[in-house]
Amino acid sequence: MKKLLGGLRVRVRRVPHWVLPCVGLFSIIFTVFWVRLDPDFGWHLQSGRDILAHGIPAHDIFTYTAAGFPWINHEWLSDIIIVGAYGVGGFAGVAVMFAAIWTAALAVASRSARWPVLAVGVAAVLDTITARPNAWTALFFALVLLAVSKKIYWPLVPLFLLWANLHGGFVIGLLVLLAAAVRDRKYRWVFAACVLATFVNPYGPRVYVEIWRTLSDANLRTNVVEWRPMTVGLLSGLFIVMYLGIGSVSGWRQRKFILPSLMLITALASMRQFPLFVVAALGLLSERYDRLRGHLSLKSRLQTLAVPTLALVVVAMPVLAIISHPDNQSPVAQVAQLREQPCHGNLFNDYDFGGYLIWQLPQTKIYIDGRMPSWKYAGENYLANWMRDLTDVRARNSDFAQYNIGCVLIRPKHAEIVRDLKADGWTVTSADAQAILLRRPN
Fold first, then answer.
1. In this predicted structure, what is the pLDDT of residue 112?
2. Does any domain span residue 6?
3. Domain boundary among 324, 358, 378
4. In sequence order, what are the residues at sequence separation of 6 or more whose Cβ sits closer than 8 angstroms to the Cβ of residue 267?
5. How high does pLDDT run on average in the chain?
6. How many whole angstroms separate alpha carbon 64 and alpha carbon 366?
């Protein structure tokens, strides 16, 4: 028996130190992604299916309001990959894929892949990440930071070529390279080559049009939740405090604090940037943790049991909270009714329901979805028009007549439009905590 246990101990010791922490990290992220549906998942899936069937569309294909709009889908390749993952394992396959990408991103960012460091990082971001294409930006951002720190040059060119076809967040990687080129002449030609590589996509340099349209839209920061200024929670605040503490002890003048500090500022201005701040700062946190272990010479139970246990408790808090309240806002019952009793006329839908409707009712054109908050036609913003129709009776009557709207699918919080429509004779045919479906009087 002693020989058997001794052999098992040897095998465990031969496992690289990063394997078990990464397996644990992947399991945590997958669990969260499995129970929580991103509102935009549906349109990504349907977009990938349409691209495989018909090629890259020149204009919007999902709405009746923006049918002529020149849609630039900077996530087109990611959409195709989502179709592949969904075909293999359904939504679980998609959750596995994005959990693996986020695991790789955080592991690369932390450099040493120590469990306590990874646990603090994932606990900080769990509230702000879902199974969606921005995971590619987190991973490639971490890889660019690693490449710059290791003085790796030309392999960055194919990385940016791929990145530019997966997600528009590649621009942040170019900014990192530009900063590196200022300090290191060898990166100047690499930076130029990477910029040219980003033009190799179905839209060429026009991909920057969509990126600029989004980044320059001030309305996003007030009308779309993920773009609003960050609300600092317990665990995200803990990570920020730890970063600020490391900076205070180490001295802010060190060059390595410049990028994470800038990312912290952008995260406070827009919560969707917070995961990238974590990616940028995780290496510093890992470095400080390794130094602390060396100074304190942590041994026996304190090192092998107490610290990982504390990290597990920290990460368990958001996981349990998300599992108990995943906050999925899908109009399941209402969509089922629309399948059985199609709408006589077009459907006016809630902004948050757009992606789900594109997925579940692929033959039904919708009013708006998550791709459109910065789109404009004839000077009019589609999201602003939708919000105006919620409260402005005259504008709503005009748009409903123009688009022949026969059904309204809205979240219960928009009580004003529900009250007005009921007063005009519209009938509520399905209602629950997620959505209300009203139909126009005959």
1. 80
2. no
3. 324
4. 230, 273, 274, 276, 277
5. 91
6. 6
Q: Quick one: 200 and 223 in the same domain?
A: yes
Number of domains in the chain: 2
**What is the rounded CA–CA span in Å between residue 41 and residue 354?**
10
CA 215 and chain centroid, separation: 16
- Are the C-beta atoms of 407 and 375 separated by less than 8 Å? no
Q: Find the domain containing 358 and state its range.
A: 332-439
pLDDT tens profile 14-24: 778 778 889 99
| Cα of 242 vs its chain's centroid, Å | 24
Residue 33 has pLDDT above 90, yes or no: yes
The CA distance from 398 to 401, in Å, is 5
**Has this prediction a pTM greater than 0.85?**
yes
* Rounded Cα gap, residues 163 and 149, in angstroms: 19
Tell me: do 211 and 89 sit in the same domain: yes
1's enclosing H/E stretch is: none
Query: What is the DSSP track for 199-262?
Result: T-STTGGGHHHHHHHHHT-TTHHHHSGGGSPP---HHHHHHHHHHHHHHHHH-TTSGGGHHHHH
Give the residue from 81, 103, 105, 106 showing the smallest Cα distance to 94.
81
- Cβ–Cβ < 8 Å for 166, 135: no
- CA atoms of 132 and 118, how far apart (whole Å): 21
- Is the residue at 7 inside a domain? no
What does the pLDDT read at residue 8?
44
